[in-house]
Specification:
441 residues, alpha/beta, N-utilizing Substance Protein B Homolog, Chain A, Alpha-Beta Plaits, 17 helices, 12 strands
């Protein structure tokens, strides 16, 4: 198992050094190491676990080390791995967690830090593995350590969603979420896909959020399955699937997916349209447009076409559309469970996004036919990017009217019928916002 820990250490170092995307880093590390399934599973658990809990782990280290900022990066990652195993992995014997972490340091350029790593881990064990929490007079700092989110983000969630929702929300971001697959209904149905996956040794389960979804608690590399290669499914969270339901694309319509990469919503909308009409999937970068084309080809979705387009500009050549999906770039505060590195961004991440998004929304109206519908979505939980932008759009464009969206879904925040915030601990999805308007005909 030492190999798994070394893979995790190297991947964590790269994320720290390069700011690279966690999923891409780990996939590359596992491939380069040629890890067997057992080592790959442990490496992934350690890697994502440390990324999710790093603020808590930093707080513990600071309790035992006077100058934690001076610790060599390799030794710091070994400390993270050791503390994470001691706190969150019951099946790892404490002695193994300590010894393997010390060995990681001894085999690195930071061998001189082996004593420090050994001392911190054994000190934490002597203290009965108790996390030293900030005082109750500092509630957001205390939440930050408990849930491993920045204090500013804990305060943000409490301010906008209330303390009970905020605590449940932050707790929901811990641990790996099951993989969700959207059935390609142009080729099979849910039972048919489930049978195909079961024949390959996987154990899919129905997703209660949408009848065309399956979940896989443990999947491995699903791109190697025959079902994937035959185009029987694509990966899509339940929130994104609901977003496509909100667009309600009809057979034969022209639908614009303004910021489409990696293409999952375009694929789902084309399937809802029975692969007729047009779904124009746009992205700023040619290589991402090519990935969408490849995905549509694998799925056999001829209704999906692509265009390289800058959503901050208007291009009349795109034409007019019956429905437009604006799934806009955002701060990503709803997907901390999938991309844990987002939690280490600063509060300034939120400053410029609302105006950028609003400009894209206004531009999209140039493509909307009279009587057409515009669905606006993000995977963040920030009213300035969500509800406030939608209210601004309605206030400044007299030809727009609120359009009811997903009436069957619970509105936990008491929102009006033309908008909804999906919360992981309530809806079983990523954190997500969907709003809808219609243009006067």
């Amino acid at each position: 198992m030492a190999n798994a820990r070394k893979i995790a250490q190297n991947a964590l170092l790269r994320v720290e050094r390069d700011g690279a995307y966690s999923n891409l880093v780990l996939d590359a590390a596992l491939t380069a190491a040629g890890a067997d399934p057992r080592d790959a599973a442990l490496a992934a658990a350690l890697f994502y676990g440390v990324l999710e809990r790093r603020l808590t782990l930093d707080h513990i280290i600071a309790h035992y080390v006077k100058r934690p900022d001076k610790i060599d990066p390799s030794a710091r990652q070994a400390l993270y791995l050791g503390l994470y195993q001691l706190l969150y992995m019951d099946r790892v014997p404490p002695a193994a967690a300590v010894n393997e972490s010390v060995m990681l340091v001894r085999r690195s350029r930071a061998a001189h830090c082996a004593g420090l790593v050994n001392g911190v881990l054994r000190g934490f064990l002597r203290d009965d593995r108790q996390i030293p929490l900030p005082p109750e007079t500092a509630p957001f700092e205390r939440m930050a350590v408990t849930y491993s989110v920045p204090a500013w983000l804990a305060e943000h969630f409490v301010r906008h969603y209330g303390e009970e929702n905020a605590r449940a929300l932050m707790a929901s971001f811990a641990g790996r979420r099951p993989l969700t697959l959207r059935v390609n209904t142009c080729k099979t149905d849910r039972d048919g896909l489930a049978a195909s996956l079961a024949a390959e040794g996987l154990h899919p389960a129905p997703c209660p959020v949408d009848d065309d979804l399956l979940t896989l608690p443990e999947s491995g590399d699903i791109t190697q399955t025959a079902a994937y290669q035959q185009g029987l499914f694509h990966v899509q969270d339940a929130a994104s699937a609901l977003c496509c339901r909100a667009v309600a694309p009809q057979p034969g319509e022209r639908v614009l997916d303004l910021c489409a990469a990696p293409g999952g919503k375009s694929f789902t909308m084309a399937q809802l349209m029975q692969n007729t009409g047009l779904v124009l999937a746009c992205d700023l970068y040619p290589q991402k447009a090519q990935l969408i084309r490849a995905g549509a080809q694998r799925l056999g979705l001829t209704a999906v076409q692509t265009a390289v387009n800058d959503a901050t500009q208007v291009d009349p050549a795109l034409g007019m559309f019956d429905a437009i999906l604006c799934d806009l770039p955002c701060s990503g505060l709803g997907i901390l469970g999938r991309k844990p590195e987002i939690r280490y961004k600063t509060v300034t991440l939120l400053d410029k996004l609302p105006d950028l998004q609003y400009g894209m929304l206004c531009n999209s109206l140039s493509y909307l036919k009279p009587g057409g519908r515009l669905i606006f979505s993000t995977c963040t939980l920030n009213p300035a990017e969500n509800q406030q932008n939608l209210a601004r759009l309605l206030a400044q464009h007299s030809q727009l009217r609120p359009l009811p969206v997903l009436p069957h879904c619970r509105r936990a925040l008491g929102e009006p019928e033309h908008m909804i915030t999906l919360l992981p601990h309530i809806h079983g999805t990523d954190g997500f916002f969907i709003g809808a308007v219609r243009k006067d005909g």
